[in-house]
Amino acid sequence: MSRPLESLRILDFTHVLAGPYATRILADMGADVVKVNSLERAPPGQGPDAPYYVMWNRNKRALALDMRNPEAQAICRQLCEQADVVIDNFAVGVLDRWGVGYADVSPTNPNVIYVQMSGMGRDGPWSKFVTYAPTIHALSGLTHVTGVPGREDIGIGFSYNDHQAGLHGAVAILAALEARRRSGRGQQVDISQFEVGVNFLGPALLDLFANGRAAKPTANRLPYDTAAPHGVYPCLPQGEGVVGERWMAIACLTDAHWQTLAALMGNPEWTADPALATATGRAQTDWLDTRVADWTRTQDAAALMIRCQAAGVPAGLVQDGIDLTERDPQLHARGYFRPIDEPGLPLGRTYADRLPLHFEHTPCDEYRRTRLIGEDNAAVLRDWLGMTEEEVRRAEDGGVLR
């Protein structure tokens, strides 16, 4: 049975994480995503010998084009005229300079959808800024509101906004396709990854607009709700040093959660303190987290999580990669990770984290390995443009497809 997006043609000029993540989602759902790259443009960490590249480019076909070459630009123009979607996350204007921008292609392919995922958007005084996750996090305010009081040098440490921008990109493409179905026309979509980050500050911005209060770092405390205990607590170590540390998150959002947790701790005398009877009192009791941590340090983290959850207390083990891939029974039961043999690629066998969407009638359970740069030249140019093997070979020998 076919996957939901089969027959959809996407020409993918994206690189690094945000754009490739957007197109990987659509490729997993069956779209024919053609990854355009070149041996000249693949910097260290962005080629088939790098885990980053392998992770975000599965289920795509790989076409090599040296876009400095006018013949390559002409082939690219033909591909754009056959595409449903053209997507890039270059600096603003790169596709235009190659003669394959929306203004060049839309007159002959009025159905085409162009998605541009730049750091700051196509206009404004910062539109030419060079951006990566740490700079976007900082500029958008995410670094500030997710920090630890007194440690403003601590950022998220994870490409959160790249992933969120990728999700926005995938949704934008699906929305533009629906709009095209209704109107019969394609369009341009301008995505500012900076604005994606600002979008996630909703409550903080509302508090500023309504009350004039600027958000401050709150670490594990909830800034706009009162809940306690609410944090991450140390548990019984399973080895030496930092590697052996075990931690568990506990989130008592109601008085009932707290009362149940106190019972699990054996209702020690200190839990009867009247200040702990309400969430407001518990949140203002500085020593509460210390007492809870004194107890969790004596407990096995995984076993304690199960006990808490069985009793109705929200709790979660802080899992690392080994936990997720080798010990997590939930992911194992749902077949979340699966091996992909990568013959021909330097990394050998890798693993796919399955698309976390389960379609009843159009299952998305095909995971094909990431392709080498230019590996699908002949197949793509045959399928999209009708080029013969001899024509493709001439272009490869002439340095056009590289």
Write the layout of secondary structure elements.
Layout: E1 9-12, H1 18-28, E2 32-37, H2 51-56, E3 61-64, H3 70-82, E4 85-88, H4 94-97, H5 102-105, E5 113-118, H6 133-140, H7 142-145, H8 160-183, E6 188-192, H9 193-199, H10 202-211, E7 230-235, E8 246-251, H11 255-264, H12 279-283, H13 288-296, H14 301-311, E9 315-317, H15 321-327, H16 329-333, E10 337-340, E11 350-353, H17 377-385, H18 389-397
Short description:
With 402 residues, the protein is of the alpha/beta class. The protein contains 18 helices and eleven strands. It has two domains: 9-199 and 338-397, Rossmann fold (3-Layer(aba) Sandwich); 230-318, 2-Layer Sandwich (formyl-coa transferase, domain 3).
Could you explain how this protein is built, in words?
The protein is of the alpha/beta class. The chain has two domains: 9-199 and 338-397, Crotonobetainyl-coa:carnitine coa-transferase, domain 1 (Rossmann fold, 3-Layer(aba) Sandwich); 230-318, formyl-coa transferase, domain 3, CATH 3.30.1540.10. The protein is 39% helix and 13% strand. It has helices at residues 18-28, 51-56, 70-82, 94-97, 102-105, 133-140, 142-145, 160-183, 193-199, 202-211, 255-264, 279-283, 288-296, 301-311, 321-327, 329-333, 377-385, 389-397, and strands at residues 9-12, 32-37, 61-64, 85-88, 113-118, 188-192, 230-235, 246-251, 315-317, 337-340, 350-353. The strands form three sheets. It has a six-stranded parallel beta sheet, sandwiched between helices. It has a three-stranded antiparallel beta sheet with strand order 7-8-9, with helices on one face. Helix 1 (18-28) links the parallel strand 1 (9-12) and strand 2. The mean pLDDT is 92.
